[in-house]
Write a structure and sequence with these properties.
InterPro entries: Lamin_tail_dom. This protein is of the alpha+beta class. Helix content is 18%, strand content 26%. A hairpin with a 2-residue loop joins strand 9 and strand 10 (170-176).
Length: 239
């Protein structure tokens, strides 16, 4: 389309596409900067001893899942128990508005969902936040124990997810699939986890990776990648 001066003029559809691309670019840049800050924070050995990290998460994106529930797992890599009083967990997804797991508002703004945490994570222990139930085959993994239930939480099964952990208003950890090297391997069949072997000093402090879960997972890998919680319910909602 040409204007009075003979210059091309964008249609409303082209303008909308351009705005969406600009928003996606801005979101990616913000996440990259935040991740840099998180990794810088974790490189300090003293800080690693005194805070909690996000070790893994899983989302079926509203589809049939290999786990009975969406979930987020936290880990205490330190040598002392940590109280979760004042800790807040945040979830957001840049998936198209209206799709399962998306937190894009009707105004096109990406929002973040929050839940207050409670209880204590023992040294070297785990804390499991359980989301919405999934349609799950009988051979799927049934989550029976967890520490905190997050009603209404549906985690996206696309490379659009960012999970943040706050202590008060300050972010202390973040894990994101946006722009990650494993983004093409994320689906309702994969767990997103930090690299590092469970039970070791560097467990879940490295880059993220995915693990494909099926009914053929061996006992060794199930022990390594299954969701864990060290105590019973922290608020009376878990088992």
């Amino acid at each position: 389309m040409m204007n009075e001066k003979g210059m091309s003029k964008m249609t409303s559809k082209e303008n909308a596409v351009l705005k969406k691309a600009a928003w996606k670019l801005l979101s990616t840049a913000v996440i990259a900067l935040s991740l840099a800050g998180m990794y810088s924070l974790q490189s300090d050995g003293a800080e690693k001893e005194s805070t909690v990290v996000i070790s893994k998460f899983y989302g079926a994106g509203g589809k049939e899942g290999v786990f009975s529930n969406d979930f987020i797992e936290l880990y205490n890599p330190g040598t002392q128990d940590i109280s979760l009083e004042g800790y807040i967990l945040g979830y957001s997804s840049g998936r198209i508005e209206g799709m399962a797991g998306s937190t894009i508002s009707s105004d096109g703004i990406r929002e973040e969902k929050f839940i207050d945490l409670a209880g204590t994570i023992p040294a070297g222990g785990y804390y499991l936040i359980c989301g919405e139930e999934n349609a799950c085959p009988n051979e799927g993994y049934q989550i029976e124990k967890y520490n905190r239930q997050w009603k209404g939480l549906i985690i996206d099964n696309q490379a659009t997810v960012t999970v943040k952990l706050y202590k008060g208003k300050e972010p202390v950890d973040m894990i994101s699939t946006e722009g990650s090297s494993c983004k093409d391997m994320i689906s309702e069949n994969t767990i997103v986890t930090r690299s590092g072997k469970r039970g070791t000093e560097d467990a879940y402090l490295g880059r993220i990776r995915t693990f494909y879960w099926s009914n053929k997972v061996t006992g060794e890998y199930e022990k390594q990648y299954e969701p864990c919680c060290s105590y019973g319910a922290a608020d009376g909602e878990g088992v």
